[in-house]
């Protein structure tokens, strides 16, 4: 299993906009429609990555815990579906049902959004503040498939708490590790 780290986008970067179809809603979403009044979490995930599957239950819990506190949440899949048909929009819709995902799960067919975010792996977490500035880009926690560390979501939860409660956020952030995005 390949382990690709995040490309560390500079903190303070303004959130790149997008307009993408949601696999689990019958509409398109852009960044403005996805954002929350306190901040926005943009995640790059896919259906088949063992790193994503490892954390998916915690991702859904984080969404459920923080959406009511003003956090906007959106996930994006940018994988090439010709070579990875298990990541197709219809399979994405099945994935949302199976994992009880009720935030938008968007399909980036051209991969332009992944390039705009400089995304490298799945899962890859980007947290923006209420001014749409990047304040966190890193791992959920130290747990990885097979490393015997329990999933806590601690790094991502601490970052979200900092945004919601207006606390100082450490500039030293560990990159996420996962499967590489499947480029065309």
Would you write up a description of this structure?
With 184 residues, the protein is of the alpha+beta class. The protein has a single domain (4-180), classed as Glutaredoxin (3-Layer(aba) Sandwich). Helices cover 27% and strands 22% of the residues. The chain is built from five helices and ten strands, in the order βββαβαβαβαβββαβ. The strands form three sheets. A five-stranded mixed sheet has the order 6-5-4-8-9. A three-stranded antiparallel sheet has the order 1-10-7. α3 (89-98) links the parallel β5 (71-77) and β6. It is globular. The model has no long low-confidence stretch (mean pLDDT 95).
CA-CA gap between termini: 20 Å
How does the overall form come out from the CA principal axes? globular
Fourth-level CATH superfamily: Glutaredoxin
As laid out across the biggest beta sheet, the strand order is 6-5-4-8-9
| The CATH C-level class name | Alpha Beta
Oligomer: single chain
* Residues in helix, %: 25-40%
- The number of distinct structural domains comes to 1
Which residues form runs of ≥5 with pLDDT under 50?
Answer: none
Rounded radius of gyration (Å): 15 Å
Task: Tell me the number of helical segments per DSSP (H or I, 4 or more residues long).
Answer: 5
At CATH level 2, the architecture is: 3-Layer(aba) Sandwich
Q: Supply the helix-strand structural class.
A: alpha+beta
CATH topology annotation: Glutaredoxin
Q: SSE string, helix = H, strand = E? A: EEEHEHEHEHEEEHE
Annotation, overall tally of beta strands: 10
Estimate the mean pLDDT confidence.
Answer: 95
Biggest sheet details? 5 strands, mixed
In what range is the share of β-strand residues?
15-25%
């Amino acid at each position: 299993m390949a382990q690709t780290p995040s490309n560390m986008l500079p903190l303070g970067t303004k959130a790149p906009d997008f307009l993408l179809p949601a696999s689990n809603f019958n509409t398109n979403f852009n960044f403005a429609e996805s954002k929350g009044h306190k901040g926005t979490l943009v995640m790059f995930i896919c259906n088949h990555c063992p790193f994503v599957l490892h954390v998916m239950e915690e991702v859904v819990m984080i969404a459920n815990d923080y959406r009511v506190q003003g956090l906007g949440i959106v996930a994006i899949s940018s994988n090439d579906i010709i070579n990875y048909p298990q990541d197709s929009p219809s399979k994405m819709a099945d994935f949302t049902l199976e994992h009880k995902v009720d935030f938008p799960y968007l399909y980036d067919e051209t991969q332009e959004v992944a390039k705009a975010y400089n995304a490298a792996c799945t899962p890859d977490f980007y947290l923006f503040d209420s001014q749409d500035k990047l304040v966190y880009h890193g791992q959920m926690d130290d747990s990885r498939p097979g490393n015997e560390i329990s999933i806590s979501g601690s790094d991502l939860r601490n970052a979200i708490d900092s945004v919601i409660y207006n606390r100082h956020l450490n500039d030293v952030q560990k990159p996420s590790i996962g499967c590489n995005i499947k480029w065309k």
